[in-house]
Amino acid sequence: MLSGVGVATADAAYGAIAAFGLTAVTEVLVGVDRPLGVVGGAILLVMAVRAFRAALTGPAAEARSDGRRPGGLVTAFATMVGLTLTNPATILAFVALFASIGAGTGGPAGAALVVAGVFTGSVTWWVVLTGVVAGLRARLTPGIVRGLNLVSALVIAAFGVSAMALGIAG
User: Fold this and answer.
1) What are the 10-residue block averages of pLDDT along the chain, 170 residues in total?
2) Residue 48's closest CA among 162, 169, 140?
């Protein structure tokens, strides 16, 4: 669930940029969308390789003696914030959405309310999603979970390759 808070934090950051009308920052981010796509794609490929290895070797290979994964909560949070911030589609989506609904036109208080709504909505989505996945995972056999993890790693890799290709091609 902490990774969902990381995504929500990045969503709120981009929401703030769009809602508070920080056009200079927006223009810089839109101007570097190609390198962000390449970096984001590379991060996805690294994550895919790690997920693939973990699925092949089993959870014991990556778990520590106390049962937690290496890196801890701060690393998980930072990874998700960084990954979401390197997704150029996120800033473009927020700019387009906020422009279409006139978000941020109510002054700083209105913009802050919109950003709080973005964060709350994103966290809520991730809480629901991780809750459903946790509930389903408890009912699946280890073999099915392993297969799903392998498929997930391949899908993440495909998204990484696609993001890098789009970043390179423009």
Assistant:
1) 74 75 62 77 87 78 51 79 74 70 67 82 88 86 88 91 85
2) 162
Q: What is the pLDDT of residue 155?
A: 92
Structure tokens at 77: 């949070």
pLDDT score, position 63: 47
CB 62 within 8 A of CB 70: yes
Q: Yes or no: say if 101 and 93 are a contact pair by the CB < 8 Å rule.
A: no
The pTM for the full model equals: 0.59
Encoding tokens for residue 33? 């969308």
Helix boundaries (H) for the chain: 2-19, 23-31, 33-57, 72-85, 88-101, 107-137, 142-169
Nearest to 85 by CA among 152, 37, 47, 150: 37
- Measured between alpha carbons, how far is 107 from 7 in angstroms, rounded to an integer? 26
